[in-house]
Amino acid sequence: MTRISRREFAAGVAAAAALTGFAPVVLGQARARARVVVVGGGFGGATTAKYLRMLDRNLQVTLIEPSQTFYTCPFSNLVLGGLRPLQSIAHNYNAMRTKHGVNVVHSTATRVDPAKKTVTLANGQTLQYDKLVLSPGVDFKWGAIAGYDGKAAQLLPHAWKAGPQTTLLRRQLEAMKDGGTFIIACPADPFRCPPGPYERVSMIAHYFKTKKPKSKILILDAKDNFSKQGLFMGGWKALYDGMIEWVPLSKDGKVVKVDPKTKQLECELGAKHKGDVVNIVPPQKAGAIAMAAGVNQGDWCPINPATFESTKQKDIHVIGDASIAAPMPKSGFSASSQGKVVAAAIVAMLQGKEPSAPSFANTCYSVVGPDYGISVANVYVVKDGKMAVAPGGGVSPAQADAAFRKAEARYAESWYKANAAEVWG
Ligand SMILES: Cc1cc2nc3c(=O)[nH]c(=O)nc-3n(C[C@H](O)[C@H](O)[C@H](O)COP(=O)(O)OP(=O)(O)OC[C@H]3O[C@@H](n4cnc5c(N)ncnc54)[C@H](O)[C@@H]3O)c2cc1C
Fold it and tell me: Check: CATH 3.30.365.10 for 3-66+107-139+284-420?
């Protein structure tokens, strides 16, 4: 695939997603003052709330989100690498209120009653809904790795939800001596952001290369292959040769036990490793409110891919990381794309109409070095009732010159700016 066609494809992906969000409905025709409650003000939930109001100004849309400031996981790895300050990935809900007329409530949803169609909040409020959208992201399976819980994460950060954990890990890296070892433990699939751990390794390698060149990175992995593996490994060879060691599942890479005080990790077949800075990315599951609403089946939530309505509870839609939408990856772009489709589907359903056949998109850049970017882009459609990859798309070419990799690093910055504006602007 040529450079031009990849760029055009990525641009087309975004356009297709936006059009899909708008195409099926006529503005302003929904039932008067129907109430939609959206839980979670991250990539999926904030996009849904905004697009619901853009599609139908009559809708009463309430967005529940505990935090006043949302720190994006996208580009949090660049904060760890010292390429950006934390403040550059912070977003607020001002535009949601003033520009889009969304009622933003800073609280936590604690209970859902699907029969009465109510959501109870930690602040004591109970909200009635006609349609409920859950986009709570992920929770961690504390204890799945023996010794790793919320308390241990204060010593061995996960930094898999951005904010204070990002700052904690960055400070530990800054305090580490040159010649130290950074260890990252990666989970088995499925988990939030499949390329995320490997972008993190790249950014920390960049920091070490420029500030602590004698240091090493050890990746202990609970799987035998990972997203964009060939491209990452090519980038590591080109930029950080000899610094990074990857231990896959088949070579005893799966961490099963940690000692937060000694920073010692134990793997399934008995290997032991000690790091100076240790980052555990724990196994994950849908956010707790999904379990409370009874929309989960095990760790994640089954949905009808045409509308993302739960297959377990009527009038509750589950999107983003919490949903089972494979082969779509658990990414911010996926969540936002799903949010647009769901907004359109809900407006149509509230009008008693059949939602249009959707298409979804995912475009994801990973920054391997300041001037070295790689990407993946795909369109998804519903085929025979299941989510499927549409023809076209794919990853960056394996062979590309420095100018191409540099251009992709610049596109990553544009991607971030455009998407943050799309979700919170
Ligand atoms: C290191 C890293 C790098 C990443 N890089 C990228 C990238 O480059 N590109 C990309 O597309 N994706 C990336 N991702 C993935 C992306 O962050 C997630 O896929 C995305 O955030 C999922 O959106 P979501 O709406 O499902 O969840 P979130 O964006 O996490 O939003 C969930 C929100 O719900 C709120 N919430 C949870 N429970 C409740 C409740 N009971 N009541 C009220 N609110 C609640 C939370 O406070 C949170 O704000 C990255 C992830 C990581 C960890």
Answer: no
